[in-house]
């Protein structure tokens, strides 16, 4: 009952903000205080940059209707500052508009701005161009790094200033770094970063905090003097207990589990099933009772994720363990609001639990039903290698960032002028995926999910005049892991065959942001087989009703899908993802154009269609060593 009262006060303060006085958000040893009244954060996370902006409103309304009072969001630096000093704020990068939508939905906002955010996002949110700055060491007390974080934070804070709590906006808290205690313990770095946040956000009235794993070592390494230190994880009550004993007084304060996990993320893998508690009442009951006890103890939490969304484009990251562990296109995360913004049984169960603490719980908004699309007439259209741009010429290969390319594919081509035979070494390492061709005929694949696996070696024979192609796919820079050897992509260092160094390269950058236009003199692909080079397929379709769908491509091995120029992300037969989210807002009734880059054609491709229910399962990796 105490909790009910505290929370209703908090929400009342949101609904009837007194315009005459500046709003305030502070805390004492046990409570967050919104305009001086206790405020318990019943939060959940949704990242605006993983959701088509047209759907923000509906998904935020869903958050409010599940009983949440606060939305937590990561900001992806790399997508906004795409080039140094140039800020792209259109569409899903328009964080200002997103925060306004959250305010209108009756939610407070906690921004998790990193600049390193992990989030299974491309390089944890770092722009790829950081690789091009001399002496750059990210996440460290490095002058070059801190110079870039300072200009980014200044720009971001200036942009969002009207949305801050002291200006009557909904932003109450801003997180510094992310789980730094899992990465390092250089307090000179976190102190310097903290000083930047305090300077950039001065006068905004937000509470700064850090978020770390609940262990003693993680908390002590990640905590910053005079900054509230919070934990994350699935066992908030025991982590809160530890937290109070591990931290110095100046980092103590009310308890917040900044990432309560219901389940977990998905990585591309032929053996691991999709992580979800959907249709698992027992597991859902555990989440309900954990969150209920957290609220009843007067503590705060944020469900990670409330709505995970989608890694559209080439924005998914990769974990790093024994090799790379790239993240699926779907960031569904087994969340209560699924990838497409539709509530599942977890949502309804949590609404029952959390709704009792919310005095004016809105009804669950209606969502348009998904649509199905009958098999689309899609045909092989042209070979990727027939649409190549003007190459960069160089003696030995260099990484894609050095060529001003951040994402996508890079093709490295050389013509032999003598005979070579033996194992191919594709530069200092086979990074992510390298598909090897001789005279356009596929020879094999290196995949850094299988590191140092001798069986994966590709051996080639080249005669004078033969053309060797190495097609490198950037599968996402690493967001989490230790001893990460490189954050640069592409092939670099010596390429050898049988120990001999090949020189004289033509390098083609293929960012493929919105697909590829059909070249005028393209040969129609024929006799498609598993030795074919990559092929673009094209088709068109009409709809009677425009709404969201799941695209399925049974029998297609690996590639990328675009619809009307929107990059839906990568598909890969190994799973567990087998259905790809196609938002209705990216389609119209007449003449929708679908383009698919089929990286590994087989000639056995099945039909492409839209379905209303997703499937998740695994298939063997045809390229496994
Ligand atoms: C924090 O503020 C709340 C609300 O005013 C109050 O009930 C509580 O006793 C305070 N805690 C401490 C430790 O001062
Ligand atoms: C290069 O980085 C190191 C550590 O990150 C720093 O100590 C050093 O001052 C930097 N050098 C220059 C020339 O900025
Ligand atoms: C906590 O205090 C101790 C003793 O003053 C100090 O050595 C340590 O660096 C502090 N830790 C943090 C994270 O502030
Ligand atoms: C790496 O491989 C070893 C041996 O197979 C295994 O025990 C370990 O769990 C793996 N580590 C990761 C991070 O996958
Ligand atoms: C595979 O290639 C690596 C690097 O070129 C080489 O060291 C290794 O001996 C090769 N494996 C086999 C089985 O030859
Ligand atoms: C072929 O010979 C030329 C001239 O010596 C050299 O520049 C080029 O790099 C060589 N190509 C390869 C693949 O080694
Ligand atoms: C078709 O491809 C197969 C396998 O690459 C090859 O053996 C055959 O000669 C090709 N046929 C034609 C007509 O190109």
Word description of this protein:
The longest helix is centred in the first third of the chain and has 18 residues, at 143-160. With 625 residues, the chain is an alpha+beta fold. It has three domains: 2-357, Alpha-Beta Barrel (TIM Barrel); 373-378 and 516-611, Jelly Rolls (Sandwich); 388-510, Jelly Rolls (Sandwich). The termini are far apart. 18% of the residues lie in helices and 27% in strands. The model is unreliable at 1-20 (pLDDT under 50). The chain has an eight-stranded parallel sheet with strand order 9-8-7-6-5-4-11-10. The radius of gyration is 25 Å and the shape is globular. It contains ten helices and 33 strands. Helix 5 (143-160) links the parallel strand 6 and strand 7. The protein binds 2-acetamido-2-deoxy-beta-D-glucopyranose (7 copies). One 2-acetamido-2-deoxy-beta-D-glucopyranose (NAG) is lined by residues 423, 425, 454, 457. The site of one 2-acetamido-2-deoxy-beta-D-glucopyranose has 5 residues, from loops.
Question: What's the helix and strand layout?
Answer:
Blueprint: H1 2-15, E1 25-27, E2 32-34, E3 37-39, E4 42-46, H2 56-65, E5 70-74, H3 77-80, H4 95-104, E6 108-112, H5 143-160, E7 171-175, H6 187-200, E8 207-213, H7 216-222, E9 228-232, H8 236-246, E10 256-261, H9 281-296, E11 300-307, E12 318-320, E13 324-326, H10 345-355, E14 373-376, E15 378-383, E16 392-394, E17 409-415, E18 420-426, E19 433-438, E20 441-447, E21 459-462, E22 467-473, E23 478-481, E24 495-497, E25 500-502, E26 505-510, E27 535-541, E28 549-552, E29 558-563, E30 566-572, E31 579-582, E32 592-598, E33 608-611
Parallel strand pairs: 4-5, 4-11, 5-6, 6-7, 7-8, 8-9, 10-11, 12-23
Antiparallel strand pairs: 1-2, 2-3, 12-13, 14-33, 15-27, 16-26, 17-22, 17-26, 18-21, 18-24, 19-20, 19-22, 24-25, 27-32, 28-31, 28-33, 29-30, 29-32
Helix pairs in contact: 5-6, 9-10
The protein binds 2-acetamido-2-deoxy-beta-D-glucopyranose (7 copies).
């Amino acid at each position: 009952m105490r909790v009910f009262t505290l929370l209703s006060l908090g929400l009342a303060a949101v609904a009837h903000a007194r315009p005459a006085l500046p709003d305030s958000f502070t805390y004492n040893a046990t409570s967050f205080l919104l305009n001086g009244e206790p405020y318990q954060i019943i939060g959940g996370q949704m990242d605006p940059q993983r959701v088509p902006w047209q759907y923000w409103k509906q998904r935020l309304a869903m958050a409010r209707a599940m009983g949440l009072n606060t939305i937590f969001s990561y900001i992806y630096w790399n997508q906004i500052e795409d080039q140094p000093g140039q800020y792209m704020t259109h569409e899903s990068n328009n964080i200002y508009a997103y925060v306004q939508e959250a305010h209108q939905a009756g939610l407070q906002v906690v921004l998790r701005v990193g600049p390193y955010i992990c989030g299974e996002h491309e390089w944890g949110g770092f722009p790829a161009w950081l690789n091009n700055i001399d002496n750059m060491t990210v996440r460290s007390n490095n002058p070059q790094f801190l110079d870039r974080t300072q200009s980014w934070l200044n720009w971001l804070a200036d942009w969002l200033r009207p949305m801050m709590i002291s200006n009557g906006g909904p932003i109450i808290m801003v997180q510094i770094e992310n789980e730094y205690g899992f990465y390092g313990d250089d307090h000179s770095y976190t102190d310097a970063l903290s000083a930047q946040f305090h300077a950039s956000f001065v006068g905004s009235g937000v509470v700064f905090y850090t978020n770390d794993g609940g262990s003693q070592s993680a908390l002590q390494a990640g905590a910053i003097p005079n900054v509230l230190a919070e934990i994350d994880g699935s066992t908030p009550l025991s982590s809160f207990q530890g937290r109070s004993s591990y931290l110095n007084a100046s980092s103590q304060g009310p308890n917040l589990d900044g990432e309560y996990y219901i389940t977990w993320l998905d990585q591309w893998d032929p053996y691991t099933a999709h992580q979800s508690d959907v249709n698992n009442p027992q597991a859902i009951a555990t989440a309900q009772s954990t969150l209920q006890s957290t609220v009843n103890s007067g503590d705060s939490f944020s469900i990670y994720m409330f709505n995970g969304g989608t890694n559209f484009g080439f924005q998914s990251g990769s974990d790093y363990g024994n090799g790379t562990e790239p993240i699926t296109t779907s960031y569904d995360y087994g969340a209560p609001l699924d990838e497409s913004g539709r509530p599942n049984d977890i949502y309804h169960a949590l609404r029952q639990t959390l709704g009792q603490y919310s005095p004016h719980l809105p009804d669950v908004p209606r969502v348009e039903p998904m649509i199905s699309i009958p098999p689309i007439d899609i045909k092989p259209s042209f070979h990727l290698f027939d649409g190549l741009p003007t190459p960069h010429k160089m003696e030995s290969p260099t990484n894609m960032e050095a060529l001003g390319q951040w994402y996508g594919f890079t093709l490295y081509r050389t013509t032999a002028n003598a005979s070579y035979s033996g194992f191919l070494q594709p530069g200092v390492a086979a990074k992510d995926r390298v598909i090897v061709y001789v005279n356009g005929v596929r020879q094999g694949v290196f995949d850094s999910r299988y590191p140092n696996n001798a069986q994966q070696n590709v051996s080639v024979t080249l005669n004078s005049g033969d053309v060797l192609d190495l097609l490198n796919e950037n599968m996402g820079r690493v967001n989490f892991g230790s001893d990460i050897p490189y954050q640069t992509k592409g092939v670099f260092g010596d390429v050898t065959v049988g120990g001999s160094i090949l020189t004289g390269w033509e390098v083609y950058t293929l960012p493929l942001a919105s697909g590829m236009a059909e070249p005028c003199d393209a040969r129609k692909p024929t006799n498609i087989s598993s030795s074919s080079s990559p092929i673009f397929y094209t088709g068109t379709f009409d709809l009677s009703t425009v709404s969201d769908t799941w695209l399925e491509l049974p029998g297609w091995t690996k590639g990328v899908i675009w619809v009307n120029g929107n990059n839906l992300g990568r598909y890969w037969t190994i799973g567990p993802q087998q259905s790809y989210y196609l938002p209705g807002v990216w389609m119209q009734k007449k003449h929708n154009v679908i383009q698919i880059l089929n990286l590994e054609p087989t000639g056995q491709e099945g039909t492409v269609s839209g379905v209303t229910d997703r499937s998740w399962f695994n298939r063997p990796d045809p390229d496994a060593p």
